[in-house]
Amino acid sequence: MVRQYKLDGVAEKIRCPMLVTDPENEQFWPGQWRRLYEVLTSTKVLVSFTAAEGADSHCEPKALGLRNQRIFDWLDETLGAVGPP
């Protein structure tokens, strides 16, 4: 079923800012994240995760704190940090 889902003709229509993560040793879709990043025409950031950081493999399961920190930093930079009321 997964093979039926494609971003051909769709990814280049995305207009919102995008964060794309690209872990080393991606076991399910190797190279797909980088290809998505290359086709995007919106504002985009590619964040790599490495085995040396302990953050490789799909969804960076061994380094959730590092992954979350990078994603939340990007959200703060992109959407603006919101403090308490």
List the keywords:
85 residues, alpha+beta, 2 helices, 2 strands
Topology of this structure?
Blueprint: E1 18-23, H1 32-39, E2 44-49, H2 64-79
Parallel strand pairs: 1-2
The largest β sheet comes out as: 2 strands, parallel
Shape: flat
Give the strand tally.
2
**Low-confidence runs of at least 5 consecutive residues:** none
- Radius of gyration (CA) equals 14 Å
How many separate domains?
A: 1
Q: Major sheet: order of its strands? A: 1-2
Output the helix-strand order: EHEH
Mean pLDDT: 88
Category from helices, strands and their pairing: alpha+beta
Straight-line N-to-C gap? 45 Å
Number of contiguous helices: 2
Strand content: 5-15%
Structure description:
The protein has 85 residues and is of the alpha+beta class. The protein has one domain (2-79). The protein has two helices and two strands. The protein has helices at 32-39, 64-79, and strands at 18-23, 44-49. It has a two-stranded parallel ribbon. It is flat and about 40 Å long. The model has no long low-confidence stretch (mean pLDDT 88).
What is this entry, summarized?
The protein has helices spanning 32-39, 64-79; strands spanning 18-23, 44-49. With 85 residues, the protein is α+β, with helices and mostly antiparallel strands. The protein has one domain.
